[in-house]
């Protein structure tokens, strides 16, 4: 079971990087939509931007995930791993297309294209429609295979066929197995996914509530990606025909509908967008939570608590990165964390029930650029704002009451709090002075020593806010030493260790990487 949990957590770490590119893509797509409503050069610019985002990125998510996951899982020579992942995915597509052609199984396009046939066109090839799952599965498998074979020693006479090339040699026959197997194995899986999607859709508001709650409460385990990513970028979140093209996934459907909503040719938004509105909690539930923490802190600490939490809230509200606040809540009390997560689920449910139809996964910037320019009669944006204000107020009252009732030690509630937090931030910033460099060296050494030394560290990576480490012997991990470097929290699950750093985790990782001889 521990190995399964570790595998899920590693997947959550690796999937973050390719997913973050989608937030940028969405914003540029919104600009493209606005430009397309103009004329002349402006309209042409919109067409070019749409091609660079919607067609190139959103339309090719499977290959992006295949390459990104292969490189992300690779322990060394990541650039070679990325090429290996790309070649492997292309081999799968071409083998699958060739087998469908040889066996006369190519579906005939109808009035709605290949919609409903179980096949799709990917990179110009008609293949079994495994959608984003194909890219994810191939990326995960290629990452595993690459790590297994990269260090295999071969004779000097055939060294050119060692390392990444050996992985490719192994993948060639496997791509034939995968390409043919997809035509047999995938159709019943696709049918099961369709049934699951139909069940959730039939559950109405209750289904949205469960989705929103689990999507938040699973954050500490790094497993929330298994909730929202399939719903927003695969058929689990729904399938719709937009302008004659079949589109799967709540976010993908909204992106496809965006220009048609903007020009007035489409007056409704597909209801699947209910799975892409979890940014609501990041803007309003976090606001109520931050205000509750400030209000319940000791009077002498209140200004310092506000100075710490307000920037965290602004980051969460604008970009959707909530982990620093999430772990403060969790470490204060699991009960507070559950209550906080319940507000997320309840908010998403009420948005759906009240008819709000807008996309907001990554925070306020995405919300303002994608949904605000659209007709409010379609998106029901005013309801979004009113409900948000209500939720900020209610979550403030309820969470403040929970903090006081249970006497939870949220920031600023202990008499020693100001002394506990002083000086930590400076050690994570670099100004080039000897004093700061010494603090950095001390911080890095404490992290390494706390993990049991360099020899005990098997692998290390980072996500948006955490260092994710695989150690050889978990008994050698010393939490007290790690806390001398970063006292924001630590999770241990067997050999998997997660150190909570914050939004500057990449700076800390960059300091550790050369010392631990970790490759890019």
Automatic annotation (TrEMBL):
One of its GO terms (biological process) is phosphoenolpyruvate-dependent sugar phosphotransferase system. It comes from the Bacteria. Residues 441-520 form the PTS EIIB type-1 domain. This is PTS system, glucose-like IIB component. The chain crosses the membrane at residues 20-43, 55-74, 81-102, 122-146, 166-186, 192-214, 235-255, 275-295, 304-321, 327-346, 358-375, 381-403. Residues 2-415 form the PTS EIIC type-1 domain. It is a multi-pass membrane protein. Keywords: Cell membrane, Kinase, Membrane, Phosphotransferase system, Sugar transport, Transferase, Transmembrane, Transmembrane helix, Transport. The active site is at residue 463. One of its GO terms (cellular component) is plasma membrane. Its main location: membrane. Pfam families: PTS_EIIB (PF00367), PTS_EIIC (PF02378). It comes from Collinsella aerofaciens (strain ATCC 25986 / DSM 3979 / JCM 10188 / KCTC 3647 / NCTC 11838 / VPI 1003). InterPro entries: Glu_permease_IIB (IPR036878), PTrfase_EIIB_Cys (IPR018113), PTS_EIIC (IPR003352), PTS_EIIC_1 (IPR013013), PTS_Glucose_EIICBA (IPR050429), PTS_IIB_1 (IPR001996). GO terms for molecular function: kinase activity; protein-N(PI)-phosphohistidine-sugar phosphotransferase activity; protein-phosphocysteine-sugar phosphotransferase activity. It is found in: Cell membrane. PROSITE patterns: PTS_EIIB_TYPE_1 (PS51098), PTS_EIIB_TYPE_1_CYS (PS01035), PTS_EIIC_TYPE_1 (PS51103). Its EC number is 2.7.1.69.
């Amino acid at each position: 079971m521990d190995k399964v949990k570790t595998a899920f957590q590693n997947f959550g770490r690796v999937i973050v990087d390719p997913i973050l590119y989608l937030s940028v893509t969405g914003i540029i797509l919104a600009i493209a939509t606005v430009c397309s409503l103009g004329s002349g050069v402006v309209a042409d610019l919109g067409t070019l931007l749409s091609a660079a985002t919607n067609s190139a990125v959103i339309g090719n998510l499977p290959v992006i995930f295949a390459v990104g996951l292969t490189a992300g899982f690779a322990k060394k020579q990541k650039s070679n791993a990325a090429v290996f992942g790309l070649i492997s995915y292309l081999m799968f597509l071409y083998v699958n297309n060739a087998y469908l052609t040889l066996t006369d199984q190519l579906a005939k396009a109808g009035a709605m294209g290949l919609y409903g046939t179980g096949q799709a066109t990917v990179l110009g090839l008609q293949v079994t429609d495994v959608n984003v799952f194909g890219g994810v599965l191939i990326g995960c498998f290629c990452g595993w295979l690459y790590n297994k074979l990269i260090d295999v020693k071969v004779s000097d006479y055939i060294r050119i066929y060692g390392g990444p090339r050996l992985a490719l040699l192994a993948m060639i026959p496997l791509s034939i197995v995968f390409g043919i197997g997809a035509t047999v194995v995938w159709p019943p899986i696709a049918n099961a996914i369709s049934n699951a999607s139909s069940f959730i859709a039939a559950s109405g508001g209750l289904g949205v509530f469960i989705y929103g709650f689990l999507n938040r409460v699973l954050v500490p385990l790094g497993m929330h990606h298994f909730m929202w990513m399939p719903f927003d970028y695969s058929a689990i979140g729904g399938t719709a025909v937009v302008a004659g093209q079949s589109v799967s996934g709540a976010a993908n459907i909204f992106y496809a509908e965006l220009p048609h909503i903007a020009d007035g040719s489409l007056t409704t938004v597909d209801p699947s967008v209910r799975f892409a509105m979890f940014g609501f909690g990041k803007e309003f539930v976090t606001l109520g939570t931050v205000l509750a923490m400030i209000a319940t802190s000791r009077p002498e600490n209140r200004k310092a608590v506000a100075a710490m939490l307000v920037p965290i809230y602004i980051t969460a509200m604008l970009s959707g990165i909530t982990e620093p606040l999430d772990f403060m809540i969790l470490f204060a009390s699991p009960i507070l964390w559950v209550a906080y997560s319940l507000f997320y689920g309840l908010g998403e449910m009420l948005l759906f029930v009240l008819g709000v139809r807008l996309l907001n996964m990554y925070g306020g910037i995405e919300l303002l650029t994608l949904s605000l320019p659209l007709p409010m009669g379609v998106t029901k944006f005013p309801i979004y704002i009113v409900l948000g204000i209500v939720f900020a107020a209610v979550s403030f009252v309820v969470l403040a009451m929970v903090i006081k009732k249970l006497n939870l030690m949220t920031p600023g509630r202990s008499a020693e709090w100001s002394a506990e937090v002083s000086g930590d931030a400076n050690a994570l910033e670099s100004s080039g002075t000897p004093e700061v460099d010494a603090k950095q060296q001390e911080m890095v050494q404490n992290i390494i020593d706390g993990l049991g030394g360099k020899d005990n560290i098997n692998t290390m990576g980072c996500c948006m806010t955490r260092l994710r480490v695989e150690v050889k012997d978990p008994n050698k991990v010393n939490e007290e030493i790690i806390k001398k470097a970063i006292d924001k929290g630590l999770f241990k699950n067997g050999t998997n260790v997660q150190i909570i750093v914050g939004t500057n985790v990449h700076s800390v990782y960059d300091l550790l990487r050369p010392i631990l001889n970790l490759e890019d």
